[in-house]
């Protein structure tokens, strides 16, 4: 009896945003007379950092400090339409809507600044809250002064609206589901490598390390991206070795009586987590960003299953990989069954069945 070490890897792809039905998001931005910027959008921040990211997009697009931005999504009545916070779309789709609105606001700021400076707007740029003449930065006017001039001199409210809509993809072949446009605007890619220790006497699987590589398009806020990936890693760890909704679902009477009866990762279960971010920009995302939210917990369970096979030579294909399932797999590993000239492998256990796409192989008599 011994503890065996193993390594495994899994790779995934994940679509960003919804498809087929448009998936719209809208945004409205106004600049107050003091130059501060109010952003109105319908995206609900559920801990994914969408308010921070979209505020960053607005600040970067207009050219003003981040702390000048106020983001308002207090209710769905006063805010523009947003389909929702799901499908990893809050940055990719809704972020694109606020970027478009911010571009229009920037255009109006430059137009009014051009009047004040008597310079063509195309020869101006906004840097850190100041409108500067390109090549002659000494000729400038602060954005708050531009906003004040808009209000008190020109009687204008500086505002901009933006909307992002995925074109409808019509089905051209009902049998195959083929559509006339790409159903997704961007695909994200990721891989996870797992290191495990498996006790062949108790069946206990301990995940000691997770190395994760994610293509996020563009990391607008690297800290938030890492937080999403590492949080997803812990969720993936739970899915892989601890969390089980059966037989509790859908029969409510079989559920545990208290929250403590549901196993989720604790501090003592956490492995060493390494995160690598790859930036492969998407032409459809704001500043090239893709989605990162939901895919963050997809790659860990299969990587762990692969590592368990590497450690003890059995495939456990039903999650979570509990000690009981590991022990049953080890017990069943001893000898394959024979059916005449065929050697029959258990598809849940044998790498041969998985790699060859079948459950049996012809052998000489």
Written description of the protein model:
- The chain is of the alpha+beta class and 365 residues long.
- It has helices at 50-62, 94-117, 143-152, 222-241, 300-312, 323-332, 351-356; strands at 3-15, 25-31, 37-41, 69-72, 124-127, 130-133, 136-142, 158-164, 171-173, 178-179, 187-199, 205-215, 272-278, 337-339, 342-344, 360-362.
- It has a four-stranded mixed sheet. A four-stranded mixed sheet has the order 4-3-2-8.
- Helix 1 (50-62) runs parallel beside helix 2 and helix 4 crosses helix 5.
- The longest helix is centred in the N-terminal third of the chain and has 24 residues, at 94-117.
- It is elongated, with a radius of gyration of 27 Å.
- The two termini are 36 Å apart.
- Residues 346-365 have low confidence and may be disordered.
Residue stretches low in confidence (pLDDT < 50, at least 5 long) are 346-365
Order of helices and strands: EEEHEHEEEHEEEEEHEHHEEHE
Number of helical segments with 4 or more residues: 7
Assign the structural class, choosing from mainly alpha, mainly beta, alpha/beta, alpha+beta, or little secondary structure: alpha+beta
Query: How many strands?
Result: 16
> First CA to last CA: what distance?
36 Å
Helix fraction, binned, reads: 25-40%
Going across the major beta sheet, what is the strand order?
Answer: 1-11-12-13
- Rg over alpha carbons: 27 Å
**Mean of pLDDT:** 87
Instruction: Tell me about the largest β-sheet.
Output: 4 strands, mixed
**Shape category:** elongated
| Percent in strands | 25-35%
